[in-house]
Amino acid sequence: MHSCNGGVQAWQLNKKVTVKGKLSICSWGLHVTYNPQKWLGERFFIAECEGIKEVQDDKILVRSVTLVLELTPILMETCQKAIAPAWETCQKAIAPAWETCQKAIAPAWETYQKAEAPALETYQKAEAPAWETYQKAIAPAWETCQKAIAPALETYQKAEAPAWETCQKAIAPALEKILNENKKA
């Protein structure tokens, strides 16, 4: 079996897969979700993950994944019902920090996008020589964006960590119960 949504990874149940290199969401690394029905795929699994790098919406970027249990439609429904209250608690806990982060990022992101548009147009017309011009043109805006993002992201991560831990603790017993029931079956 292979990854879906553009992934090329071959998978085996209970076999750990680890990627090396710099992880980047949607570019490099292993991605898991807590909302499998949103993503294309015919089969779904409960996975053990290590090296969580980033969470974006319902995508989680990780270094290592082991597929532990294939979710049948009945198991998926049971998992979703078990996880729903804990996930709602997580979302409520994370929301204020995320909103603060988004507000802090918005002006810097707008500045970056305005600087990027003309530089990108120049690049597309002249190809390689324009790349250097593009990099120089966006560098100050990108630096401003990164400086604006850093404190908001730090605040978000500090607020997210306890909420994520609470979420994991709330979800763990339900998943453990499902795994044990499945092993008995």
Summary tags:
single chain, 185 residues, alpha+beta, 2 domains, 3-stranded antiparallel β-sheet
Topology:
Elements: E1 16-18, E2 30-33, E3 44-50, E4 54-56, E5 59-62, E6 64-71, H1 73-126, H2 128-184
Antiparallel strand pairs: 1-6, 2-5, 3-6, 4-5
Helix pairs in contact: 1-2
Architecture overview:
With 185 residues, this protein is α+β, with helices and mostly antiparallel strands. It has two domains: 16-71, no CATH class; 82-184, no CATH class. The protein is 60% helix and 16% strand. The chain has helices spanning 73-126, 128-184, and strands at residues 16-18, 30-33, 44-50, 54-56, 59-62, 64-71. A three-stranded antiparallel sheet has the order 1-6-3. β4 (54-56) and β5 (59-62) form a beta hairpin. The chain is globular and about 65 Å long. The mean pLDDT is 78.
Beta-strand proportion: 15-25%
User: What is the count of β-strands?
Assistant: 6
Helix content: 55-70%
Distance between the termini: 23 Å
Kindly give the count of domains. Answer: 2
How many H/I helical runs?
A: 2
Q: Structural class per helix/strand content?
A: alpha+beta
Strand order of the largest sheet: 1-6-3
Radius of gyration: 20 Å
Biggest β-sheet description: 3 strands, antiparallel
Large-scale geometry: globular
- Please state the average pLDDT score: 78
